[in-house]
Amino acid sequence: MPIILMHGLLGSSRNWRSVAKELTDGSALHCLDLRNHGNSFHDEDASIRAMSDDLLYYIEYHHFWLRLLQKGHKSRLCDHSFPVLAAESGKFQHPHGDINKIGSNYGYAYQFDSGLYAKFLRQYSEDRKVKRTEGRVTEVFQDSESGNINAILLEDGTKIEADIFIDCSGFRGLLIEQKLKAGYEDWSNWLPCNRAVAV
């Protein structure tokens, strides 16, 4: 049986992020954003009645889809989603600013092959005379006065000095965290795409 989790007023489906997986034994779990909350659409009518009607419509729609499956129809739930179909047809657009248009009430995320993207950036940079040095960083040096990183040592003994270093080591944070201890600052409230998944 599907389970629906709802947030409180001024909350969002993200409130359930840390516990959602613990609340189901494999049943379909739906964490929803009410209108004017989280990634859901915004509307002038933010009454409890309107939110309740939205929830009832969602439940009824989901039941209709399950009945279609029982009758032999082979479709994904996302086959009934405007932004999904648009994206799969190569016709995706950023959400419209007019909340009265169908193209205004969805969120989105960028998905790409990080290996292919890295290959593209490498070729793009080298075509513009950027010098590429490959190696594993074994030691990081800091300026004794400012504390800024001024050099790194590679496994083969090569020492690279520079005025600025950009840490591209991903979640490891080789320079910015392991050496500088910069800490993590959550900007999710300001970012339209606030999640990263590395596979």
Give a summary of the structure in a few sentences.
With 199 residues, this protein is of the alpha+beta class. It contains three helices and five strands; from the N terminus they run E-E-H-H-H-E-E-E. Among the domains are: 3-75, no CATH class; 114-172, no CATH class.
Structure description:
With 199 residues, the protein is an alpha+beta fold. Among the domains are: 3-75, no CATH class; 114-172, no CATH class. 22% of the residues lie in helices and 12% in strands. The chain has three helices and five strands; from the N terminus they run ββαααβββ. The protein has helices at residues 48-70, 82-88, 114-126, and strands spanning 3-6, 29-32, 137-142, 149-154, 159-161. The chain has a three-stranded antiparallel β-sheet, with no helix packed on it. Strands 1-2 form a two-stranded parallel ribbon. The longest helix is centred in the first third of the chain and has 23 residues, at 48-70. The protein is elongated and about 65 Å long.
Q: How would a crystallographer describe the biggest sheet?
A: 3 strands, antiparallel
Strand numbers in spatial order across the main sheet: 3-4-5
* Helical/strand content category: alpha+beta
Please work out how many helical segments DSSP would assign.
Answer: 3
Distance N terminus to C terminus?
30 Å
Tally of strands: 5
Residue fraction in strands: 5-15%
Mean pLDDT: 83
Gross morphology: elongated
Order of helices and strands: EEHHHEEE
- Which runs of at least 5 residues are low in confidence (pLDDT < 50)? none
Portion of residues in helices?
10-25%
Gyration radius, rounded: 24 Å
